[in-house]
Amino acid sequence: HFRYCFPFGRPEGALKATLSLLERVLMKDIATPIPAEEVKKVVRKCLEKAALINYTRLTEYAKIEETMNQATPARKLEEVLHLAELCIEVLQQNEEHHSEAFAWWPELLAE
C-alpha cells in the first residue's frame, strides 16, 4: 500500500523511519543486525501487493474493465493508453519518493 499509505505530500523522512522500524521489528535481538536481504524480501512482498492494489485502483479509476467488452478496438486502445499513462505517473511518483530511502529501490522495483 505504499502509494496509499504515504499519500502524496508525504512527510519528509517518513519512509526512512518506517524502514528503520521494520528493521527493528525483524531483529531477533538488539545486538544482531538484520541482513539486508531479509528486509529486501519483506519490501519485495509489499511491493507486489502494492502493485496489484495500484493496478486494481487505477483500472477502477479509469473504468477500463467494465468498458472493454462493448468498446471498439480504437476505444480499447485509447483506454489502455490512458491506463499506461496513469501507471507511468504512479511509477514516477514512487521512484521520486522511494529512491531517496534506499539505494536498491530501482533494482527491487524492476523485479
Automatic annotation (TrEMBL):
Q: Which residues form a coiled coil?
A: none
Q: Which residues form the MUN domain?
A: 40-111
GO aspect biological process, one term: synaptic vesicle exocytosis
In Pfam terms, one family for this protein is MUN
Determine the domain of life of the protein's source: Eukaryota
Question: InterPro entries in the record, alphabetically?
Answer: CAPS, MUN_dom
What's one GO-annotated cellular component?
A: presynapse
The protein here is known as Calcium dependent secretion activator 2
- What organism does this protein naturally occur in? Hypotaenidia okinawae
**Where is the organism placed in the taxonomic lineage, from the top?**
Eukaryota, Metazoa, Chordata, Craniata, Vertebrata
